Predict the 3D structure of the following.
Amino acid sequence: MTELYNLDHLTELEAESIFVIREVAAQFDRPAILFSGGKDSIVVTHIAKKAFAPARIPMPLVHIDTGHNFLETIAFRDNLIQDMGVNLIVGSVQDTINQGKVQEETGNNASRNKLQTTTLIDTIEENRFDACVGGARRDEEKSRAKERFFSHRDDFSQWDPKNQRPELWNLFNGMHAPGEHFRVFPLNNWTELDVWNYILKEKIELPSLYFSHERECIRREGQILAMSEFLNLREGEKPEMIRIRFRTLGDLTITGAFESEADTLEKIIEEVAATRITERGGRMDDKRSSSAMEDRKKDGYF
Amino acid sequence: MSETTTNGLLRFTTAGSVDDGKSTLIGRLLYDSKSIFEDQLEAIKEASTQKGINGPDLSLLTDGLRAEREQGITIDVAYRYFATPRRKFIIADTPGHIQYTRNMVTGASTADLAIILIDARHGLLEQTNRHSFIASLLGLRHLVVCVNKMDLVDFDEARYREIVQEYKSFSSRLDITDITFIPISALLGDNVVDKSKNMSWYGGSTLLHHLENVHVGSDRNLQDCRFPIQYVVRPQTDEHRDFRGYAGRIASGVFKPGDKILALPSGKESTIKEITLGDEKLEKAFPPLSVTMTIEDDIDISRGDMLVRMNNQPDVVTLLDAKICWLGEKPLNTSSRFILRHLTNEVPAKVTEILYCIDINTLHRNEENTMVSTNDIARIKIKTASPVLTDSYRKNRTTGAFILVDPSTHLTVAAGVVG
Ligand SMILES: Nc1nc2c(ncn2[C@@H]2O[C@H](COP(=O)(O)OP(=O)(O)O)[C@@H](O)[C@H]2O)c(=O)[nH]1
Ligand SMILES: [Mg+2]
């Protein structure tokens, strides 16, 4: 008889994520979903839709726009917004630069990844968001493995990993002083493979960048980077057409592509299951040091 | 490519004293089940060499914070994931140091099973007892006691038996019936994933085999129908003008469309019209599903209320008998006000009485000691400003659990169980 009540683990993970997102809507006055256009934030948005159906998602999507975007990401974002009838708020890194709040990095390794943090914090302050739902997962990176579901940020958006609130059962304590906020991670317990299997199961649409396609790229330090007007070519680097796909979508200048023939979800899942390198392994920003992510997170990064 | 695992999800936590090998064991499970990625392995090999260690120090896999790597200890709970064709696992690797006990409580509160590690050279330590007791207090039904570092006692069966005996005489006073003992070497891998060649005297299963097959499904409460309302869905669009959906996660029991229900605390009756998940209609809903229900009658229900069955109701109380693990930095002060968070409810609360603290070594009640300091476990009485809908924690791990929040600091200061 109990056999009838067994759930596969994806359904169980989904139930947990729905609970977390509803808790955000119930406990906070001005919540938002941080939407990067990547698969994880697309899954979060899909789960939020299920959580509040048949009503609309009762919080806006926030996109921190580095200005270094894949065109596909923006087109996809705008479609999704329209379909779901939710509000979109864009925080622009270019604006932050124009306001003189940050300096654009220069040189061959220049990226806007670090600058995003300032724009993100500004956007949170301007809109007085008290909770920001993100698609980060604990399996992504070792300091992320310590994240709570409700992760407290002080008045300066800082994370204090050595002093986190204990989080017991599913009793999430979202109490905070004015000016403080929470980052909330409904997908904490998902792995990359779970996300892909869920996308397949739920038939969720993704930007075409995730699927194998021909693209003009360069090879740099063992990585493949997509060609774009934002990429500063180094001596000896020559663009070439390569059949690639992306495993994550971030700032165009640092998101590594890799050679792949996987052009369907089924093939991608097979590939991910067989892959022996973590998904952030393809990102230059994490390679800067072994505590790179922890340091950026303390400062208020996603 | 199998999309799902046959035995679903198992959440477990590791516990034990500092240096008993918890992080190493998890590293070993991940390593031997091929769940470690090459770049992670490269990174820890490099870090191990820097520290002057031969071969990869597997504990570095879970000790992710800078301070942890520097001090070589685990400070906060780290969550790790791996899957075998049989099951998906969520591991909470928790710290052994006494000052981080609250993080151990965090890890254990959502676990189905706890692995307690014991260093074969040292036998039971104070933290072994504390963690075993907390596991029992938090209602974990399954314990696996791993006697670790068997390589350092020449894989000696007599030493293993001695520790098993010692543990059994302690645990007979705990509330856990399913306890399994396994002699292992986390460092070398004996009996973790592969059977040990050094301990032919051990006839039981390996740790991974046990974890893959332990049955936790019947731990769920499917008898007592409890649906705490988390959020009221009101689209207010033309298409769904009068729609009112009650969203929440089933705490226990099985609900079906057509069931007669009772809304608490109002006591109004109605019938379930529809149960949905997204736009899919469900024939039944049970824990841990998150669903939305509509009912036949227009009655006032809001967040914090609960749908139950007429003939099976929770206690509706303003006075709670409870055990708590105190997590606050300063001792519990009975003149303080708290916010009690229970299910989807928040109510002002006072601690009216401290009955006793529990000496975790002897498990004796110490009625003289009513000073409750960080990490202490105590029995108390609580008064709430409005009624809460509870069951005893033994019967129901969802409706029987609560936390206390200090309204001046907003910090979570106690984990509590009813009954
Ligand atoms: N010889 C031996 N050493 C072990 C074993 N398991 C762990 N250790 C060592 O014990 C020390 C503490 O291990 P660690 O996993 O950090 O313990 P934790 O504090 O419980 O997480 C490390 O130096 C490990 O290499 C084992 O089975 N045999
Ligand atoms: Mg450790």
